[in-house]
Amino acid sequence: MQNFTPVSALIGGSLIGSSAVLLLWLNGRIAGISGIFHGLYPYQRKDFLWRLLFLAGLIIGSQIYYLLPQIHFIPRTNYSVNLLFLAGLLVGIGTKLSGGCTSGHGVCGIARMSIRSFTATGIFFIFGLGTVFFMRHIWGIS
Amino acid sequence: MYNITALLCGILFGCGLTISNMIDANKILNFLDITGNWDPSLALVMLSAVIVTWIGYKFVIKQNRPKLITAFVLPTKKNIDAKLIFGAALFGIGWGLAGYCPGPAITALGLKLTDAFYFFIGMISSILLLGVFSLVYKK
After folding, report:
1. Which pTM value belongs to this model?
2. What value of ipTM does the predicted structure carry?
3. Residue A96: its chain B contacts at CB < 8 A?
């Protein structure tokens, strides 16, 4: 457990939660990233810009990495491109079908005590754990 | 104003994901690898996010309406169907394969991480694939 970073985890998690609360309080929306992403298509004029700006905000927010040297990590560079593409495809399809991801189901849905979100979160954790077990301890990659 | 607050909420969310290092795919995989060199950080990120959201939502839901629009837009589905289960399973597999879920992947684009870029191309392709699929199915 030498990689455990409890302080930055608690600070980061609280910021994520604050963003979710503000987005519902001000804009009346759930801060589910996959939902915001999938809502971009099919294009609806009145429901497009806020989504694009929220996602652009994520990218802008990442720049805090350069302001706080404490956040440092070594980026992964040798990973299989095919695997990354396949994973993106599965995550895109899976979140569309189940109607949420780690943020929409895992954070906002659970905070709303939604049975659907508890179920989805349980399932994607189990499959995530299983996949990593297979990848690292049976197949021997990543 | 509505668009500006969306942008600011996005920035706050992106800062949270970056500070907690959730944009480091290896950190996610190390969390999901409970039989290896386990890193429990993600559990604390989710726990603190859920607690803050749970408390905040309690206050927000009591309001008649959001500040900047006439009504809340909340999920309406209540039942657990095959789509939910199958979709969550696919998402879990993709999450474990790459160590990215949608939020961290998009945020990580800001650090020009090529891994996040290839993953994001996959996510965009899923929209096209689902679009074609729904056209075929409607016939």
Report:
1. 0.97
2. 0.97
3. 87, 126-127, 130
